[in-house]
Design brief:
By secondary structure, the protein is an alpha/beta fold. The chain folds into 2 domains: 3-149 and 331-357, NAD(P)-binding Rossmann-like Domain (Rossmann fold, 3-Layer(aba) Sandwich), CATH 3.40.50.720; 153-318, Dihydrodipicolinate Reductase, domain 2 (2-Layer Sandwich), CATH 3.30.360.10. Helix content is 36%, strand content 23%. The chain contains 12 helices and 15 strands. It has a 9-stranded mixed β-sheet with strand order 14-13-12-11-7-10-9-8-15, covered by helices on one side. α5 (102-111) runs parallel beside α6 (126-139), α6 runs antiparallel to α12 (351-370) and α9 (203-213) crosses α12. It comes from Candidatus Avichristensenella intestinipullorum. InterPro entries: Gfo/Idh/MocA-like_OxRdtase_N, Gfo/Idh/MocA_oxidrdct_glycsds, GFO_IDH_MocA-like_dom, NAD(P)-bd_dom_sf. This is Gfo/Idh/MocA family oxidoreductase. Residues 156-289 form the GFO/IDH/MocA-like oxidoreductase domain.
Length: 381
């Protein structure tokens, strides 16, 4: 077939797909009906072209109670994701389970021919991330990862500034954030469900902010440190929670990136400090300071400052905080996923990028356990 015919055929298929979706609502299923699923369902209910038709949860009666709370009388409830995928004809699912089951649920959904919105962190290990990408590639379906801060105007401004060349060649980044006191509960604090703690829960956001800005270069090595002094202490936790706490509540690392860039990272659920520092991106022509937040789960912590020289003089340019207009970040995350499905487009937050994010999280955890620097080897997909 001539190349021109191939392009025409692809275009025709997309037009037919858009027409098909225009004639009916997208059928969506929710895997896992815990806390984060509430935000997903509330956002889906605001979309006029979506019908939530199925819910799955391992805990007996939990999906049914969730359906009643949100008035989803017509939604069918299942005891696990496998039975839901086997019984339903779905267009998409949101995977809202605990971290250690992200890979299994996402892969099974892709193999069932369903588009996937996978909550962050992508998974726990680099090997799991590679398996997800292989399943995505084989399925031809969209898998996007739930990094809604990407949709924020100020986060996008960070990338615009860096990509404009205003900083010149970037050589050092300091990033992180965290809470003075802010340890979550439930499945977040045990390895058997979460796999990793603050490192994956909010550290992935901090990493995505700066890595997305500089174009997601390949990570090469990591020297990592983790601790859990607060999570395991009855001075700061209920005795029953301290007894089962076995993930990190603080993590730090030096990561070498391709392009001779050094990334200095730290993240915290609890510490005797209000912040481990602002994010700083240093380049040969200028530098950008981004005021810290607790977890980078929304926008920046205040006006940013660009440090540069003008006509031989040292100048500081304040970048005002941009006001958000229109839908909230979570709605933008959901809508961008749905629009990609309808248009036959690409994932708003592609796994090809988040694979590197997951590789860094994996390497920090491995390095901390070994007490030495580790090499980051990206698998072939």
């Amino acid at each position: 077939m001539p190349i021109g015919d191939e392009v025409l055929s692809s275009f025709t298929q997309k037009v037919r797909q858009e027409r098909t979706y225009a004639e009916r609502k997208l059928k969506v299923g929710i895997i896992g009906t815990g806390w984060i699923a509430e935000a997903h369902v509330e956002s889906y209910l605001r979309q006029p072209d979506v019908e939530i038709v199925a819910l799955a949860d391992l805990i007996d009666g939990k999906a049914e109670a969730f359906a009643r709370r949100y008035g989803l009388e017509a939604a069918r409830c299942y005891p696990d994701h496998a039975s839901m995928l086997a019984a339903e004809t779905l267009d998409a699912v949101s995977v809202c389970t605990y971290n250690v089951t992200h890979a299994e649920c996402a892969i099974d959904a892709l193999r069932a021919g369903v588009h996937v919105l996978l909550e962050k962190p992508m998974c726990v290990t680099l090997d799991e991330a590679a398996d997800i990408m292989r399943a995505e590639k084989a399925s031809g379906k969209i898998l996007t990862v739930g990094f809604q801060p990407r949709m924020d105007e100020n986060m996008q401004m960070i990338r615009k500034i860096v990509q404009s060349g205003a900083l010149g060649e970037v050589y050092y980044i300091q990033t992180g954030g965290g809470r003075r006191r802010g340890i979550p509960n439930s499945t977040f604090i045990e390895k058997k469900t979460a796999g990793i703690g603050a490192l994956g829960d909010i550290g992935c956001y901090s990493l995505d902010m700066v890595l997305n800005a500089i174009g997601y270069p390949r990570p090469l090595t990591a020297t990592g440190y983790t601790s859990n002094f607060f999570g395991t202490s009855t001075e700061y936790q209920k005795p029953e929670d301290a007894a089962r706490f076995d993930v990190d509540d603080f993590a730090a690392a030096f990561i070498r990136l391709e392009g001779n860039i050094m990334l200095d990272f730290r993240i915290s659920w609890a510490m005797h400090l209000d912040t481990p520092g602002d994010t700083v991106i240093l380049g040969r022509k200028g530098a950008l300071r981004i005021p810290s937040t607790e977890c980078w789960n929304g926008t920046v912590g205040g006006p940013m400052t660009l440090y540069h020289d003008v006509a031989g003089e040292q100048v500081e340019t304040v970048i005002p905080v941009l006001e958000s207009h229109g839908p909230g970040l979570f709605d933008r995350k959901i809508r961008s996923f749905l629009d990609a499905i309808i248009a036959g487009g690409t994932a708003p937050v592609p796994t090809s990028q988040i694979l590197y994010n997951q590789a860094i999280l994996d390497a920090i955890a491995r390095s901390a356990a070994l007490g030495r620097e580790v090499e980051i080897v990206i698998p072939n997909i």
